[in-house]
Amino acid sequence: MTEHIPGIYNYCDRWCERCVFTKRCRIFSEQQSIMEEVNAADESEDDGSEKLLKHALDSFAEAMRLIQNWAKAHGVTLDTDNSDMPERNPSIEAAKEQLVSAGRNYAKMTDKWFSVNSYLFKDKEQEMQLKFDLEIGDIEKEFAELVNALEVIRHYLFFIPAKINRAFANLGWDFDEDETVQNDSNGSAKIVLIAISKSLSSWEMIRQFFPEKTDELIDILMSLQKLKGQMETQFPSAYAFKRPGFDDII
Ligand code: SF4
């Protein structure tokens, strides 16, 4: 059996269908096992809900154990009284608000652009069909490129603000992360930067398909480019972070 890579799922892009490390990922293996159990239960007319509930409870217990270990290591008391919690550096709090909000705004702009311009894709489909029938150009390749660009943009749309949020989670507290490069903030920031770069390339591809929309698309491209620059400024060591599996030689 191939060995799992510890923590690989923490800094991946959660796109398992496209991941080359599925066989070495504990989360993927667990998801597969659950699906197999549920499918087996379906066949035996058991709805599988008991197994799912048990798995959820086990996962919760494991998460609690990890949180408690972390809290103990950092001298943090896990009770509901937060009065003695250290204040977070206000400039980091402000940066978090600003960047998470910029990530959400990008998602809103994108959503709006696709709703207003849905007709473009219908027209493009007809145009491609015509070219295909007339055997003009490599339409299959063009179609694959367009579909890929759309899938990439869609996959990272809400992933970006969620991961920005996580990148700030441990930043600027008294119990700040010890490692200057290999820490959760840099790992999360790095996957945000990767997601933004892939999204930028995909938007450029969309722009090439619809050059008449360049002015509108430049706004989206600029907002993403600005977000990328702000993340790079806020997390200057992010690119140096080695993501388990993806950036390490295994
Ligand atoms: S490492 Fe790969 S298989 Fe595992 S959760 Fe991430 S994308 Fe999915």
- Name the poorly predicted regions: none
DSSP E strands, number: 0
Largest sheet: none
Give the DSSP E fraction (strand runs of 2 or more residues).
Answer: under 5%
Specify Rg, calculated over alpha carbons.
Answer: 22 Å
Can you walk through the features of this model?
With 250 residues, the chain is an all-alpha fold. It has two domains: 66 residues, no CATH class; 151 residues, no CATH class. Helix content is 65%, strand content 0%. It has eight helices and no strands. The radius of gyration is 22 Å and the shape is globular. Iron/sulfur cluster binds next to α1. Iron/sulfur cluster (SF4) binds next to α1.
Note the topology:
Elements: H1 26-43, H2 49-73, H3 90-116, H4 118-133, H5 139-156, H6 159-169, H7 184-209, H8 214-234
Structural descriptors:
binds iron/sulfur cluster, mainly alpha, 250 residues, 2 domains, single chain, 8 helices
A few lines on this structure:
The chain has 250 residues and is mainly alpha-helical.
